[in-house]
Amino acid sequence: MPRVTVLRSLLLFALAALAEIGGAWLVWQGWREHRGLWWIAAGVIALGAYGFVATFQPDPNFGRILAAYGGVFVAGSLAWGVVVDGFRPDRWDVVGAVICLVGVAVIMYAPRGA
């Protein structure tokens, strides 16, 4: 897979994570933290946007894209917690996230025969 394609794919995964995790966080804030319906509405819109981002991935296989994205979601969720909520992951959180990202690399970018 060409480097430009891999870079595009990685950027799409990052955008998907931002939309999904951010959207879920907005819903959480609106409901659990009583910030109101506008927060929830913004979260629902972000979650809807997440659904479209995967369609731009260069690989045509929905199952592969979603399976690989799962690893990005795990690592991205921990990173979101650190940046936005002041979460302090322990070493096992980090080890788990690294394992997930290795899985992403294997699923998406391993050489495949024709």
TrEMBL record:
<dbReference type="InterPro" id="IPR003844">
    <property type="entry name" value="UPF0060"/>
</dbReference>
<comment type="similarity">
    <text>Belongs to the UPF0060 family.</text>
</comment>
<feature type="transmembrane region" description="Helical">
    <location>
        <begin position="94"/>
        <end position="111"/>
    </location>
</feature>
<protein>
    <submittedName>
        <fullName>Small multidrug resistance family-3 protein</fullName>
    </submittedName>
</protein>
<dbReference type="Pfam" id="PF02694">
    <property type="entry name" value="UPF0060"/>
</dbReference>
<feature type="transmembrane region" description="Helical">
    <location>
        <begin position="35"/>
        <end position="53"/>
    </location>
</feature>
<dbReference type="GO" id="GO:0005886">
    <property type="term" value="C:plasma membrane"/>
</dbReference>
<keyword id="KW-0812">Transmembrane</keyword>
<keyword id="KW-1003">Cell membrane</keyword>
<keyword id="KW-0472">Membrane</keyword>
<feature type="transmembrane region" description="Helical">
    <location>
        <begin position="65"/>
        <end position="82"/>
    </location>
</feature>
<dbReference type="InterPro" id="IPR037185">
    <property type="entry name" value="EmrE-like"/>
</dbReference>
<keyword id="KW-1133">Transmembrane helix</keyword>
